[in-house]
Structure formats: structure tokens, C-alpha cells
Amino acid sequence: MGAHFGHGADHHAATPPGGRALRLGIGGPVGSGKTALTAALCRVLRDELALAVVTNDIYTTEDADFLRREAVLSDDRITAVRTGACPHTAIRDDISANLDAVEALEQRHPGLDLVIVESGGDNLTALFSRGLADRQIFVLDVAGGDDVPRKGGLGVAAADLLVINKTDLAPLVGSDLELMASDAARVRDGKPVALTSLREAPGAPEVAAWVRRVVAGSREHAPA
Amino acid sequence: MHPSLLLLADSRLPAGGHAHSGGLEPAVTAGTVTDIPSLTAFLRGRLATTGLVTAALAAAACALAVTATEPVEEDRLPGLPRAGGATGTGTPAEAATHRASDPPPSGTTTGTVNRATVTGDGGLAVAWEVLDAEADTRTPSPAQRRAARAQGRSLARVALRTWPSAALDVLARQGAHHPLVLGAATAAAGGGPRDAASIAAYGSVTGGASAGVRLLGLDPLGVNEALGGLAAAIDAVAAEAAGYAGRPWAELPAPSAPVLDLYAEAHAGADLRLFES
Predict the structure, then answer these.
(1) Residues B182/B188/B191/B195 CA torsion (nearest 10 deg)
(2) Where are the domains of chain B?
(3) C or N terminus of chain B, fewer CB within 10 Å?
């Protein structure tokens, strides 16, 4: 399944101040595949970009532990943040613990290109604060119901890239991919949508290509 | 109260408080707190111990921050303890290299800071370190110290943005305890030691109350009613705490709650937890 990039891709450039690492938020409902996508991006990009990850676990350090177990990055490049039962608060209303974690990683690893902040699983209204993430990806999966893009919500409508994941499951759960893609295009005003199956394409090539473009774009716009 | 101070007291202040339960999560895990009456009892105990200590530290910090912005006059240092008869000879540069954990420099006695060491920027940095050491000694649990410093960092970040001040600058660099940053932020926002004590005492119970709503599904109206019932006790603790602002820091109150310290340590090592502390 190919990417459905709209005409408006990258129309507002991320411009991190001072040439620091680009901060990329990855959000979406529980079980949609945020951690698996994060791991895939780390595996594909770690040889070309200096990377670090902050996870926002809802209950345990499961996500950080998964990334460490999979050895996608060295342990000291992965930090887990606790969210006090409010994952959306930690990425939106009160981002201080996440900022702390990101800045500690940047200090420990000077010259980082990209810091991925993975949200704890949340609902469709969760959106990263612009104070925390320069760009954000929202991850849905086809098993969550093919009416989710139509229902919209801040995450679906406003994220810089919408990923509709687990497309290999579509025939099994009776989800209509064409419908999901066209509904998403309608509420997203031309911003890109990628249909992915990490089982069929473990490197999430469309998403990785988008991340490469965003990081390159932020370098061009960064002050000298 | 001035609206700036209301902002500082607001639980929606983006200073990282939402991820801390004020020791409530381990108490819930242990089965000590199960309903609104047991939550209320927990909050009363916390107010009388941690609440009083943090309110007194916040008041002392506020007094020091206010002092630092005024010209220093002989025998007029409202927030500072006096070392009896001591005469400091160190230069500010020498003083700045002295850490609170080292033996006191000549001219000071343990637990006090004399006048000479607090004049000049370097001396002020030392004064903040000494007050921070007073906070350390009143926080036996390493997990709680880490939590207090993490929350201090977050508060310094937002306070510096909104009410920039030299004292907040120093505390942000030092990674100071939360009540010190709160006291300095109160001063920067135009408040005094009594305001700082009120905000700290209030904050010592609201975090746990909110965590109780989230962890136990308690009726938020009932929890608010319980907080309302604590208002007089909060005010009394704040008044007592503010009374220490002009006294030597070694005399700051130090009541402790060993069970809370043990809970904090157990919580830091727990597999399943929603809150940082």
C-alpha cells in the first residue's frame, strides 16, 4: 500500500531555534503501533541521523523497556517519563517533565539530529504542544474501526503526518482502506497520510522518508 | 491575593506537578488510603509534616530573594540568620567555590550564614546552597529529594519565563529543591514570605487530593469538600511557617513522617506506578 501524500506536504517548515535537534512527537490511541513505529524509525534512521527517544508510559516503563530490549538505540539514548495518569497533560498542558527529559538527552549527546517523543496511548483529541514537538505524527490502526478518520478529532485532523497502521489486518477486520484514506484527506486539508504495515514493510519506508525530509527541512531553516 | 500569586498557586501551572501524587499513590497501593475520610486523614498528616517544612522553607527562600534585591544594610537582613559575632573574610569568589556540603568557611558557624558571605553574587549563591542543604536534611528519603529537585527544575523553568529574577536564575542553575524555587518565584511575582508559605502549604495537600480522584475514582465534589474543610489548618500551618522567615535557618521546623519516607522509597522501586512520586 503506497503513501497518500497530499499536495500540502511540508508546507509549514519546522524551525527549531538555535539549530537544536528536531523534536518529533508520535501520538495515537493505545495499541495503534506507536512503539513499533518508533522502533522501526530508529532501526532505519540510526545510521544516518543522531537519534534519541523519550517514551511517555502510561503505567510502567514497558515502552522504554521494549525499545531497549529490541536494542534499537543504546540505553542512554532512551528515557522514560511518567505521566500521573494523564498522558495528554504530559504532552500538551504541562510539558515540563518531557522538556526536562529532552534537554537532558541533548546535553548527554551533543549534536543530536532528532529526538522522538512517543506519547502514552491516548484519545483522539490528544495533540502535542508546539512547545514540546516541532512536528507530530498521529498513528491510527485499521482495527480501531474505519470510521475513526471520519470522526476526526484533533490528532487526526492536525498532526503533520497521519499514519494508518496495520493495513495487513484490513481484510480480517472488515475495514475499508480507501474510505479511511479519503475520509482522512477530507478532514486533514491536504496534509499527508501514510498507510503502513510494519509486518509487510518493517522499515515503514513512507514514514521514514517523511521524517528525513522534515529533518532536512529543519536544518535548512535553522539559524546559522 | 495578587493575581500573579494565584497563578503560582494554580494546579494548572505547567510546572510538572501533575505527575506527582504527593506520596498518595504508594499509600493507595499499601491500602492505607481507600476513601475520602482516609484521604482527608492522610492530607492532614502530610500538611502537619511535609506541609509545615516546605512552607517554612518557601518563606525563608522568599525572604532571602527579597533581601537579595535590596541594598544590604548592616544588621538588616530580614530572611537571614545571623552568626553570632562571626566576621567573614572571604571574597565573593572564594565564597562561591564553597559548597554547602563542605565544612563552613571561616567566619561562619554550622547551620548559619553570616552577613559577609551573603553580600555579592557569589555569596548569595552560597546562601542558596546552604538553604538547599537545610531542605536536604529535612528530606530523609532520596526518592523525595529527587522528586523535590525535579519539581524545582520544572517550576524554575516556568517561573523564569514569567517572572524573571536573579534568584530564580541561581536556583535553576543549582537544581534547587521545589520550596526554595517557590519562595523565589513568589518574591519575583511580588509576594512576601507569608504568601510563599500559604502557596506551599496549600500545594502540600492539593496534589495528593487530585491524585486521589485519579487513582481511586473518588467523587471530586467530596474531595473538594474535604479540601475546604482543611482550609483553616492550611492557613494555620502557613502562619506558623512564615514565622520562621526571620530566624536562623537551622531553627526551621523539621517534623517528619517516617511512613511517608518509606512509602516514597518503596514507590521509587515499584514496577507499576502512574506517578513519579
Answers:
(1) 0
(2) 3-79+123-268
(3) N
The beta-carbon neighbor of B275 closest among A84, A89, A99 is: A84
Model confidence at A16: pLDDT above 70: no
How many domains is chain A built from? 1
What's residue A17's pLDDT? 55
Residue A56 near chain B (CB below 8 Å): no
Q: pLDDT class for B53, splitting at 50, 70, 90? A: very high
On whether any CB of chain A is under 8 Å from the CB of B208, the answer is no
Distance CA A156, CA A127 (A): 9
- Tell whether A94 lies on the interface with B, counting CB pairs under 8 A: yes
ipTM comes to 0.79
Instruction: Locate A195 and state its grid cell.
Output: 498507510
Q: Quick one: cell of B132?
A: 538547599
Residues spanned by the domain of A181: 3-221
Decide if B16 and A60 are in contact by the 8 Å CB cutoff. Answer: no
Asked if B149 is an interface residue toward chain A (Cβ–Cβ < 8 A), one would say: no
* Cβ within 8 Å of residue B249, ≥6 positions away: B60, B81, B111, B112, B113, B130, B131, B134
**What is the pLDDT confidence band of residue A59, given thresholds at 50, 70 and 90?**
low
Q: So what's the pLDDT on residue B75? A: 42
Q: Do B19 and A58 touch (CB under 8 A)?
A: no
| B54-103 pLDDT, tens digit each | 999 999 999 999 987 765 443 434 445 444 333 333 333 333 333 434 44
Cα distance from B133 to chain A (closest Cα, Å)? 23
- What mean pLDDT is reported for chain B? 85
Q: Is B41 helix (H, G, I), strand (E, B) or coil?
A: helix
Cβ B268 vs Cβ B143: under 8 Å? yes
The superfamily in CATH containing domain B3-79+123-268 is Urease accessory protein UreF (1.10.4190.10)
